[in-house]
Design goal:
The protein is mostly helical and about 525 residues long. The protein folds into 4 domains: about 20-110; about 120-210, no CATH class; about 225-315, DNA polymerase, domain 1 (Orthogonal Bundle); about 330-500, Intergrase catalytic core (hpI Integrase, Chain A, Orthogonal Bundle), CATH 1.10.443. Helices cover about 55% and strands about 5% of the residues. The chain is built from 21 helices and 5 strands. The protein has a 3-stranded antiparallel beta sheet with strand order 3-4-5, with no helix packed on it. Strand 3 (about 375) and strand 4 form a beta hairpin. Residues about 1-5 and about 505-515 have low confidence and may be disordered. The protein binds zinc ion (2 copies). One zinc ion binds near residues 51, 77 and 79.
Length: about 525
Amino acid sequence: MRTRPTMSFRSVRGTVKDPPGPDALLSAFLSSLSVDAGSAVAVLYSAGTRHFLYWLDRQGIANGTLDDRIVQQFEKHRCRCHGYSAQEAPYKADQAARVRRFVRFLEDQGYVEVDDGIDDLPRHLADYSDAIDRLQLAHGPAQSYRSEAEHFVAWLRVARCQWIDIDDAVIDQYAAHDCRCPVWRKRGKLVATGTKRRRRCARHFVEFLRGRGTIPSAEPVADDDPHMSAYLAWLRQHRGATDETVQRYRAYIRRLMPMLGEPSRWDAAALRNALQRRCKETPGSASLLVTIMRSYIRFLVVQGECCPALLHAVPSVQRYRLSTLPRHVDPATIERIIAACPTDRPVEVRDKAIILLLARLGLRAGDIRDMRLDDIDWQSGHLIVKGKSRRQDRLPLPQDVGDAILAYLAAARPKAAEEHLFLRAQAPFRPFRSSAEIAGIVARTYDRGGIEGVPTGSHIFRHSLATNLLRAGAGLESVGTILRHSSPETTAIYAKVDLPMLSKIAQPWPGEPSC
Ligand SMILES: [Zn+2]
Ligand SMILES: [Zn+2]
């Protein structure tokens, strides 16, 4: 059974209500805590609160302006308050905690002006709690997401931080804060948490609020240079570029700029020279550089800052499909990698199933990331793979791959309401977001099994499968079918791995030689 948030966290703007007299205020406070009047706890709370009220009065501080800074001053004050100076030092921290709770009570009652810049926080917290339910996490993690959301809300309020100002820096501050937040439930304090969990949970809650439009999305990538800023905004608006793309484009353009100078003075020769020099420095990214350069010139043309004809001055990059050999490893090494997969922990059971899918079926990382539970037809022993295009392929499920997936489903897959077959092993048990996570799994599998000298990345399995099948005498066409290549040319890349193999599949040239 989980508990609902107990605090109201409402915003109080403009004029605040005047609280009743000290006695009425104190008894209202004690009843809000549901402690019995006359009990030891009630005595402690009364003493602390009375002391605080007395001190506030002496300092001339109005209730409506209370905040944590004032509580800290109270905590540190050299007590000369009449009748209270006998307080023992060891109780000081407890006393400050009680005072903080009292301030929260005043805030909740509307006696203190607080404006978080957000309305209806209790509703957002309740909806968030429901959203966490839908993730079907285990009790512990679910509870810590809920209580951290509440903790974050309480901390923001204590810090008097506006919700609109939340960014990574604020979340980092929260993660590292020395917690004295007034967060209590009926049965004691909220779940205690460390820095990492605080950061993760706060981000999760903030993303939830951003997702429903309650608070604005993260600041887009900006630049000090107004001209560059305008270009980045244009990229985002007119080209629908993601932040990642925008960052990459900016880095490329920045490196090109010093070589080119003012756009108004550009000419075709200068452009070509700059591009050629950059391409020599990083040959692998030549075609990306050309794409980025064209996009930037298009922007300049729209702005009227450069001549439209320059667009044609950017040369095309000739791509030689067959210029590099695919890396591959021999079948014995593949078997050694599979044999070295431990299966002691759930995450290892998952990783072995993934390695087998890569090795036996040559799936792409994206295929594994996107795989759904109902993509496997256990009756007929087939697997549906959607692949790069929208085309669906049915692949036979080899015995050991099927066994490994079954082992994962039976004992290792988190009980989460997700359609994806493979989920992350840590809560919230989400599907993989990127193919790079599959490459990470491959790397960790090598580490666990002590495998060295094998190229990294998940594609090595695909390359190896193709090469090894061809070497074992399989035809190009059947290898192409297994790898689900849409064009036989792609499969042919693997055939150039060695010349004897190439000669075997070489076709006689049709017709007479022309020379
Ligand atoms: Zn005092
Ligand atoms: Zn705290």
